[in-house]
Design a protein that fits this description.
7 helices; 202 residues; alpha/beta; 7-stranded mixed beta sheet; globular; Rossmann fold; coiled coil; transferase; 45% helix; Acyl-phosphate glycerol 3-phosphate acyltransferase
Length: 202
């Protein structure tokens, strides 16, 4: 209930002060459970991805520092976020999202950094969770403002979805699967960004 209420309030405010919001390839959104993966550089992308997938709620993996204090812990929990120690991830970094996937939920993972980074470990965590949870990944790319000041400039906002990536479509050993699917995920992000740029020129 709170997730729906918060989405409605924030969406209303951003619709007034922000730019035009467009969801591209919405037909590629699959039925849950799945892991939706979108690299990001700011909190804004997470909000708009929630808008794009609504009414399906996303259960977000978030750094544990955001849960400090009773009020923050209550807020993050009611926004369907769960804490992960990113500097020293333990078993819960895998167990918590897998448990949600087995309950039929959608888990959102947002590797930090830009889409063009070459270090695959940022993407491999998402692939590992999808592999262990036996679910596909839904790639998404955000193009738009990176901070509140840019929102006020009413820059256009685009989220583009790619084809679902099946993690269990091979009989290869796990290590090789994780490496190959991480590469595929990175290439998909680059392709989606190029497609967004092409649509902006039309």
């Amino acid at each position: 209930m709170f997730y729906r209420f918060a989405k409605g309030v924030v969406h209303f405010i951003l619709a007034i002060i922000g730019g035009r919001f467009q969801v591209q390839n919405k037909e590629k959104i699959i039925e849950g459970p799945y892991v939706v993966v979108s690299t990001h550089t700011s909190w804004i992308e997470i909000i708009y991805l929630g808008f794009a997938l609504y009414p399906t709620p996303i259960h977000y993996m978030a750094k544990q520092e955001l849960f400090k204090g009773k009020m923050l812990n209550w807020l993050m929990t009611h926004l369907n976020a769960f804490p992960v120690n990113r500097s020293n991830p333990g078993p819960s970094a895998i167990k918590a999202p897998i448990r949600l996937l087995r309950q039929g939920k959608v888990v959102g993972i947002f590797p930090s950094g830009t889409r063009k980074q070459t270090n695959l470990h940022l993407k491999r965590g998402a692939v590992t969770i999808a592999y262990k949870g036996n679910v596909p990944m839904l790639p998404a790319v955000y193009d738009g403002p990176k901070n509140f000041k840019e929102i006020l400039k009413r820059k256009p906002i685009i989220i583009r979805f790619g084809d679902a990536i099946q993690v269990h479509d091979t009989e290869q050993e796990q290590k090789l699967v994780l490496e190959q699917k991480s590469e595929e995920l990175m290439k998909t992000f680059e392709t989606l960004q190029a497609e967004i740029e092409a649509t902006k020129k039309k």
